[in-house]
Amino acid sequence: MPLYTSSSTVGTKFPSLLGHRGGRGIQCNSSRFQSLSLLFCSQLCSRTRTRTRQQNTQPHIVSFSKFNKNSSSTSFASSSSSSSSIMEDQEENMGGFNGFMEPNYSRELDVAVRAVQMACFLCQKVQQGLISKSNGQVQSKEDNSLVTVADWSVQATVSWLLSESFGSKNVSIVAEEDVQSLSKVEAADLLESVVKTVNDCLAEAPRFGLQGPQMALGTSEVLAAISRCNSNGGPTGRFWALDPVDGTLGFVRGDQYAVALALIEDGEPVLGVLGCPNYPMRKEWLSYQHRYHRIISKLTPPTSESWDKGCVMYARRGGGEAWMQPLLQGHKKLVWPNSARPIQVSAIENPALATFCEPVEKSNSSHSFTAGLAHSVGLRKQPLRVYSMVKYAAIARGDAEIFMKFARAGYKEKIWDHAAGVVIIQEAGGVVTDAGGRPLDFSKGIYLEGLDRGIIACAGAKLHEKIIRAVDASWNSSSL
Ligand SMILES: Nc1ncnc2c1ncn2[C@@H]1O[C@H](COP(=O)(O)OS(=O)(=O)O)[C@@H](OP(=O)(O)O)[C@H]1O
Ligand SMILES: [Mg+2]
Fold it and tell me: Per the residue annotation, which of 248, 355, 370, 433 is the catalytic one?
């Protein structure tokens, strides 16, 4: 059975790396920022290698599906014949390895993008319900964060789809929601809503090129799918990191939020998929509250064909490319690559022209500290405050140049809040590190252990270096 189409085949243009960055040179030998430069150089070298390979093997990479590599990815590839949920309308499979014997994760990427498309579809329906009437779908968790039917439903749906596609034995997921609060007797109505929402969504699976269940899932199957997401991550093997609704506050306020799914192998994120259902295609609308965007949209309704808002961004580590495709509209069927376009980071290096983004809530990141940094680096524009990993999407798409997050002391960042965004920004040409210039460490379990002060993502090395310097200069006098 034909299985899937590689993302590598969706585009055939591979501009040279430096040309792709608008000709910006990159210094790899800075003595002052050696670790930073080494990091950036290694990102650059990996990208250059990959591009050379792709140029040599275009347009279709040779399939090595019979090659039996002793790696966990083989089990994913081999599980496809028995439990693949991909429909028949797709191209020849890539065997899980490209012509250079490296896993290309094409099948995982294909399933992940489709699953995130479905999750976005689900979230849009729930968010519309929240906006039209405050109908009790917002719950309070013990940790006081807001959680919705969408959180649990997305987690159940994505978990079920991944398990069906790769076999539940082969799928390990780290995800935000645990099943305890949903299993309580007092949550019976909520659970019923989740089961209905999941089944409504899975009934649409064929439109997204995936197979849904033969019969509607029962309560126990939905709970089982949620509770399967019980991995604790770690340094070895393969697991998925899922944030079913990232930016819960944005979601319940009818604003920006994201569905984030990453595949992590041996502690490194290798695939990143980010669904951004409210991401506006006109970048100036990112800075407006979504309510305003909705009013404007009503005044000038988009035509059915126009791409007004909502996308899924994705990238494979080392692929040297990042992509964005629109959310599936109306009753259409997803035909890969679904009008995907390449995305890349901005070429702006001048701080005076750069836009920085940060969390909306000052309890999540110190606005006063970033304002000081902005001043010292010479950033002049107002910060773009956006909920969720949409900030990573904005950097990858070139709509902003800098993302900074400095959480209060003691807060431990979770891997699912960053993994997908890191891969996408890096493959779109940007840099992501902690404030010490080191890569984020996804190998230590569910937290980004050892994170130095904060997170800094930039379109290019020069801006990144300036921010790191500014953090060093002002950290000791800050109250953080
Ligand atoms: N106190 C504190 N400090 C820092 N970070 C925190 C904190 N509390 C939560 N979180 C995590 O931040 C995620 C939301 O980040 P955002 O960048 O979207 O923040 S904001 O809502 O725009 O203010 C949010 O993700 P979601 O829970 O998925 O919304 C949390 O994982
Ligand atoms: Mg989150």
Answer: 248
The protein residues having their C-beta less than 5 angstroms from ligand 2 (an ion) are 243, 246, 417
Cβ atoms of residues 143 and 244 within 8 Å: no
The complex scores an ipTM of: 0.97
Cβ contact 51:17 at 8 Å = yes
On the CB side of 245, CA atoms within 13 Å amount to 31
The per-residue pLDDT for range 39-63, each reduced to its tens digit, is 544 444 444 433 333 333 222 222 2
From 145, 417, 447, 455, the mutation candidate for ligand 1 (largest count of ligand atoms within 8 A of CB) is 417
Highest mean pLDDT among 327-331, 373-377, 476-480: 373-377
Annotated binding residues for Mg(2+): 176, 243, 246, 417
If 0-12 CB within 10 Å is exposed, 13-18 middle and 19+ buried, where does residue 71 land? middle
Q: What are phi and psi of 23, to 5 degrees?
A: 75, 15
For the chain, give percent helix, strand, coil, nearest 5: 40, 15, 45
Q: Is 363 touching ligand 1 by the criterion CB < 6 Å? A: yes
Ligand 1 lined by 446 (C-beta under 6 Å):
no
Catalytic residue among 5, 110, 148, 151: 151
**Core vs surface per residue 343-372: b (16+ CB within 10 A) or e:** bbbbebbebeebbbbbbbeeebbbbebbeb
Beta strands in 398-449 (DSSP E): 402-405, 431-434
> 465 phi and psi, to 5 degrees?
-60, -40
pTM: 0.81
CA of 182 to the centre of ligand 2 (A): 19
Interatomic CA distance for residues 459 and 425, integer angstroms: 8
Q: pLDDT (tens digit, 9 = 90+) per residue, 341-352?
A: 999 999 999 999
pLDDT in tens, 141-183: 433 334 579 999 999 999 999 999 999 999 999 998 888 888 8
Peptide bond into 439 cis (omega under 30): no
* 151 among known catalytic residues: yes
